[in-house]
């Protein structure tokens, strides 16, 4: 998969040769797509079959769908570069969001772009069902002129039951009140105040209480395990024989077989249905029996199909796709914790710093010594202005990405803000975050406005510390375990732990020269004699070493250019006075 969108500052096409591609296998309004074509190749291929989608998906970074395309786990598994699936609408039940989350693919939608359209369509079906509009139109077109068989009922002064008082349900309530209806709601999670403001006269406590009193019933819940078959035979039997039911939410909330029986046997009078359990209704299915029933006015999932709604949802999701593909944050992610774009921009250099601190930790402390990252406790301590940032999800994700980058197949590329928690859990990495508002909690007086400390505690209680800071857009490491440093963590680095005695630099230079390796920078990090940030026990150990050897220790950090093989590292390790060598690639 492609590098993680939210914590990756690299180009989505590492070789820079090809523009990222976005696949649109359904009819999506061109208004939004136009904002993508400048930077991305947008392939509109309405009607793409499931097999064609499976074959095509590996070369796309973005996928924009409506409700017809099934974005299954298999489709997501076949994706190689996919970073975002955008649903140009509300419902994401055609997308395997869990599978996307596991793969670090962000799923976005347009939670509000089509709610007015859906509410208006509900009212259209309400009136059509009340006045037999569908049948009247069909018979007239067939040369008939039926008036007496098509006498309808009025909706004014009647009771409308609304199950689900969310965005669409509340709008329907307002419109129904405008038609002179009395509205009774049922939604265990609804706010009574909002319902009251929308004109809902009463909230029912249960279906048993609601159903016998309504003349019309409409459902506006998502399709969940708890709402599948919410209304079956028992519920339809509990309704008035003159009642009519509507569904502009999702097929399956009414049990379709039970609905057909209820209409056939006169338990209820009619229905207005926009959504079905199979779309288009499969031949011989319960969906087909509902759609073709003479007492049902049926529409082919047209709830969101208005020019205005399609413009809204297209603009909404295309803006998010653009933002994600250029490393920003979406406004309506279904599976990513929300963080404001400006907050994210502020965090970006720290994201880079923390990712590199994680990489440095694994390669310097763990890799060289053959240890494990899992099973340790990691503490990120934010100092200065950073301590005031409440949403540090990108920093958490960056740490996980850095920690696993050198020990996972994809080089940590598949870690992002969406799946970092899952990956940390899978690898047994526990991370806590501390906001050191009071500097006494941190490293005492510090020269940087904002800095980050990574403290790691192993299973035996042993501790390591890395500290870093940001200056402008540049990131620096200011402390590596017991040593005070000041270097930019990037490229290939050899870190040598040695006795701080004359001649060391020359020896190391000679070894590297013999292997034709250039030194691009060098820095000696000396022991932090003040011991800022270290536990008392560690400081004591450090003093013991100094007194026992009569010499100091230091770290030599070398930026290098060339092939650093195992042999090079072994040769360096054999040099006089060298205690340890690690190779770090960031
Ligand atoms: N036909 C269309 O073209 C079309 C268009 C837009 C939306 N929709 C669908 O309409 C549905 C509602 O959309 P929304 O934006 O209003 O969603 P929403 O999330 O804003 O509201 C859903 C409401 O259902 C309530 N609810 C959940 N379970 C319930 C239960 N068991 N009993 C009673 N209430 C329950 C929730 O508390 C919530 O208030 C969704 O399924 C959406 O996909 C369809
Ligand atoms: O969930 C939705 O937004 C509606 O069901 C609309 O679906 P559509 O985009 O396929 O019209």
UniProtKB/TrEMBL annotation:
The keyword NAD applies. It comes from the Eukaryota. Residues 1-22 are annotated as: Disordered. GO terms for molecular function: NAD binding; phosphoglycerate dehydrogenase activity. It comes from Thyridium curvatum. Residues 7-21 have a biased composition (Basic and acidic residues). Keywords: Acetylation, Amino-acid biosynthesis, NAD, Oxidoreductase, Phosphoprotein, Serine biosynthesis. Gene3D superfamilies: 3.30.70.260, D-3-phosphoglycerate dehydrogenase, domain 3, NAD(P)-binding Rossmann-like Domain. Pathway: Amino-acid biosynthesis; L-serine biosynthesis; L-serine from 3-phospho-D-glycerate: step 1/3. It holds the Pfam family PGDH_inter. It is an enzyme of class 1 (oxidoreductase). Residues 346-473 form the D-3-phosphoglycerate dehydrogenase ASB domain. This is D-3-phosphoglycerate dehydrogenase. InterPro entries: ACT-like_dom_sf (IPR045865), ASB_dom_sf (IPR029009), D-isomer_2_OHA_DH_cat_dom (IPR006139), D-isomer_DH_NAD-bd (IPR006140), NAD(P)-bd_dom_sf (IPR036291), PGDH (IPR006236), PGDH_ASB_dom (IPR045626). Residues 22-335 form the D-isomer specific 2-hydroxyacid dehydrogenase catalytic domain. Homotetramer. The keyword Flavoprotein does not apply. PANTHER family: D-3-PHOSPHOGLYCERATE DEHYDROGENASE, FORMATE DEHYDROGENASE 1. It catalyses: (2R)-3-phosphoglycerate + NAD(+) = 3-phosphooxypyruvate + NADH + H(+). Its EC number is 1.1.1.95. Residues 123-303 form the D-isomer specific 2-hydroxyacid dehydrogenase NAD-binding domain. Belongs to the D-isomer specific 2-hydroxyacid dehydrogenase family. GO terms for biological process: L-serine biosynthetic process.
């Amino acid at each position: 998969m492609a590098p993680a969108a939210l914590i990756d500052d690299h180009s989505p096409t590492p070789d820079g040769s090809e523009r990222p591609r976005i696949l649109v296998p359904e009819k999506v309004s061109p208004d939004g797509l136009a904002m993508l074509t400048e930077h991305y190749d947008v392939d509109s291929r309405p009607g793409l079959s499931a097999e064609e989608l499976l074959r095509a998906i590996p070369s796309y970074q973005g996928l924009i769908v409506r409700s017809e395309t099934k974005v299954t786990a298999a489709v997501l598994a076949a994706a190689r570069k996919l970073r975002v699936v955008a649903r140009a609408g509300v419902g994401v039940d055609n997308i395997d969001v869990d599978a996307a989350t596991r793969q670090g693919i962000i799923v976005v939608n347009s939670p509000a772009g089509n709610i007015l359209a859906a509410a208006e369509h509900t009212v259209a079906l309400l009136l059509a069902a009340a006045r037999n509009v569908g049948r009247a139109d069909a018979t007239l077109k067939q040369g008939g002129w039926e008036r007496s068989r098509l006498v309808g009922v009025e909706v004014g002064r009647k009771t409308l039951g609304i199950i689900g008082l969310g965005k669409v349900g509340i709008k329907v309530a307002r419109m129904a009140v405008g038609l002179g209806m009395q509205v009774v709601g049922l939604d265990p999670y609804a706010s009574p105040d909002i319902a009251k403001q929308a004109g809902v006269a009463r909230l029912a406590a249960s279906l048993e209480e609601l159903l016998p009193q309504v003349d019309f019933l409409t459902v506006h819940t998502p399709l969940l395990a708890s709402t599948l078959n919410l209304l079956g035979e028992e519920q339809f039997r509990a309704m008035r024989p003159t009642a009519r039911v509507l569904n502009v939410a999702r097929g399956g909330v009414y049990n379709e077989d039970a609905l057909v029986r209820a209409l056939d046997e006169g338990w209820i009078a009619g229905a207005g249905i926009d959504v079905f359990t199979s779309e288009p209704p499969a031949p011989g299915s319960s969906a087909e029996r509902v759609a073709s029933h003479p007492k049902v006015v049926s529409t082919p999932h047209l709830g969101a199909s208005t020019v205005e709604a399609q413009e809204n949802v297209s603009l909404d999701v295309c803006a998010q796709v653009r933002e994600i593909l250029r490393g920003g944050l979406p406004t309506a992610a279904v599976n990513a914790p929300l963080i404001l774009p400006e907050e994210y921009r502020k965090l970006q250099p720290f994201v880079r710093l923390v990712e590199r601190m994680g990489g440095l930790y694994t390669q310097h402390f763990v890799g060289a010594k053959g240890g494990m990252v899992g099973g340790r406790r990691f503490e990120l301590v934010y100092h200065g202005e950073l301590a005031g940032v409440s949403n540090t999800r990108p920093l958490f994700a960056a740490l996980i990405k850095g920690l696993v980058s050198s020990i996972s197949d994809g080089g940590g590329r598949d870690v992002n803000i969406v799946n970092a928690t899952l990956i940390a859990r899978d690898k047994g990495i526990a991370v806590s975050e501390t906001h050191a508002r009071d500097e006494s909690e941190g490293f005492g007086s510090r020269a940087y406005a904002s800095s980050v400390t990574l403290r790691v505690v192993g299973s035996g209680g042993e501790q390591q510390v890395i500290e870093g800071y940001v200056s402008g857009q540049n990131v620096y490491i200011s402390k590596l375990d017991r040593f005070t440093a000041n270097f930019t963590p990037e490229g290939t680095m050899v870190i040598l732990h040695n006795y701080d005695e004359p001649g060391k630099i020359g020896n190391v230079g000679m070894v590297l020269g013999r292997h034709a390796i250039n030194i691009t920078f060098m820095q000696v990090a000396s022991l932090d004699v003040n011991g800022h940030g270290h536990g008392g026990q560690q400081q004591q150990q450090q003093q013991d070493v100094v007194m026992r050897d009569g010499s100091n220790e230091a770290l030599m950090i070398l930026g290098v250019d060339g092939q650093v093989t195992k042999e090079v590292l072994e040769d360096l390790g054999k040099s006089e006075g060298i205690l340890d060598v690690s190779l770090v690639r960031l």
